[in-house]
Amino acid sequence: MRVDQPFVRRSAQHGYEEDQPLVMIVDDDASIREALSELILSAGFQPVSFASTRELLDADILDRPGCLILDVRMPGASGLHLQSHLAENGIAKPIIFLTGHGDIPMTVQAMKAGAVDFLTKPARDQTLLDAVTAAIAMDGERRAEAAIANRNIERLETLTQREREVLHEVARGRLNKQIAFDLGISEVTVKLHRSNVMHKMEAGSIGELIRAWETLPAQMRQIGSR
Predict the structure, then answer these.
(1) In sequence order, what are the residues at sequence separation of 6 or more whose Cβ sits closer than 8 angstroms to the Cβ of residue 112?
(2) Is-above-0.90 flag for pTM?
(3) In this predicted structure, what is the pLDDT of residue 100?
(4) Which of 8, 55, 2 lies closest to 27 in space, CA to CA?
(5) Phi, psi dihedral angles at 139 (to 5 degrees)
(6) CA R_g for the chain
(7) Which of 123, 160, 217, 222 is deepest in the core (most CB within 10 A)?
């Protein structure tokens, strides 16, 4: 079996699904990469492996669904360094650490930084597969939440400045008459703006509108504030 297969994009007509999760393995030990790849394949997941963090970054596949299995200590940048790099660049990717040299401070550092698990080599097959399953599910949930947020951001951008101000006040729980007073407009105008906001945000109720508001990034929730 060839372990370090290059990542090649293939169309659906050739049996490849772009949305299929990848289990990205990074370890400088070829025998471990091979064993992990075989285990991941046996569980029905798609593995792709690399000998270093640099190889992974050069492959430009971190935007794909899936998770990472990282060795902690490798020549060049370590798995912990990669975890920090991804966090600094806003790349949310579930990480499972595998190490033969782990210690408590290292484990605490990795887990505090959001690692899914920190396992010692040789890890039990089922323990590792359970971690991979949890990591892929976590990534799926995050992607679904991001898709909803992006959709609501697009809808927000269709609002006028006044409509954003009204939305901001509605999300604060303010009544129409309070919003009218604060913005120096009539209550009838507030109702009109609120109706437009509901339509543009595709919300069927105030509850739906507020839930959509809460999915927006914090900085965007300040746009309507004065």
Answers:
(1) none
(2) no
(3) 79
(4) 55
(5) -65, -40
(6) 23
(7) 123
Per the model's pLDDT, the better-predicted residue between 90 and 191 turns out to be 191
* Spatial distance between the Cα atoms of 226 and 224, rounded to a whole number of angstroms: 6
Q: What is the enclosing helix (H) or strand (E) of 48?
A: strand 46-50
219, two tokens: 């900085």
Residue indicated by tokens 């650490």: 97
Tokens (6 digits) for 119: 């396992």
Structure-token pair, residue 66: 């899936």
Q: For 139-154, how does the pLDDT look when each residue is reduced to its tens digit (9 = 90+)?
A: 999 999 999 999 999 9
Q: Distance (Å, rounded) from C-alpha 114 to C-alpha 202?
A: 34
Residues 6 or more apart whose Cβ sits within 8 Å of residue 219: none
Q: CA dihedral in degrees (42, 43, 46, 50; nearest 10)? A: -70
Residue, of 74 and 6, whose pLDDT is higher: 74
Three-state secondary-structure class, residue 54: helix
Distance CA 117, CA 135 (A): 9
Written as one string, the DSSP assignment of 140-152 is: HHHHHHHHHHHHH
Contacts of the segment 172-175: beta carbons below 8 A, 24+ positions apart: none
Cα distance between residue 97 and residue 110, in whole Å: 8
